Amino acid sequence: MIHIVFNEADVKVIKEAIALDESLQGEVVQIKDDYAVGPLNNIYVGEGIEARKQWWRDVLAGGDYDGKADSGEVDDYKTIAELVGTMRRNEEETIWIWAAQNKHDVSGYYWLLKYMQEFQGRVFILYLNNLPFINEKGNIFYPNWLHEIQAKEFLKAKKLAREITLSEFEVDPDEWTKLCEENKGIRLLEGGKKLGQAEYDYYDGELIKFITPDWQKASKIISQFLNKAKETTGDAYLLWRLKVLIAQDKFDVQGKLGNMKDFEIKTKV
């Protein structure tokens, strides 16, 4: 059994669940890119793969994650090649894809599906959408992310594992292809597994609300956005958008325009 997740924090909680239940024994593999943002056109061929990598280079340049696009730390195509090789060599091997109801996990699921088609019947999905769980205080809640769920709660969740159907393998890739061809910058979860799209500036309006007449570090503005905004995304993306807004001369800035703690922003007088 191979478990696939889409967030680093999910790796830890799935491993904790495995330690509690021998029937879940297996490797945990993380798909690391965030397919809810960035270009998708021709994403399965060299030209599109390189275009996306260059986009990430531009987004991360001069910030807290500068150079990460070329560090080799995120290489989903290498990960998937190893995974497909394992599945071809061992016809008894199965894959469990774990996803929660958020655009990041669902986008990752869609990207992954193309590589899973040849293994239909051996690939299972555990999509924990709109399902109640018990938190550490004993209260019922509806998680948006897998890592919000206690490890012991996954022992109940495993009963939800089901084969990805032949129909899903036919329909879902078509939906993803449409999104890839539209090639907009942002994916948004509209309910279930349905994704919509928006332009790269989608978060700008909400982000601007946290910029005040007083100087604030970019890190504080981003933190407030992540804690208070209804729709959020990664801090690296938000740092890039702040720099884009500054380049448009919409705000005053002081300090070195680099890491999010290096410079401060305020509204123009």
Which tags fit this structure?
269 residues; alpha/beta; Rossmann fold; Arc Repressor Mutant, subunit A; 2 domains; 5-stranded mixed β-sheet; 3-stranded antiparallel β-sheet; 12 strands; 18% strand
Overview of the molecule:
This protein folds into two domains: 2-178, Rossmann fold (3-Layer(aba) Sandwich); 204-267, Arc Repressor Mutant, subunit A (Orthogonal Bundle), CATH 1.10.10. It contains nine helices and twelve strands. The chain has helices spanning 8-20, 46-60, 76-89, 103-116, 154-157, 166-182, 204-208, 218-228, 235-247; strands spanning 2-5, 27-30, 95-100, 123-128, 133-134, 140-141, 162-163, 186-191, 194-198, 216-217, 251-255, 263-267. It has 269 residues and is an alpha/beta fold. The strands form four sheets. It has a five-stranded mixed sheet, with helices on both faces. A three-stranded antiparallel sheet has the order 10-12-11. Helix 4 (103-116) packs across helix 6 (166-182). The protein is globular and about 65 Å long. Helices cover 39% and strands 18% of the residues.
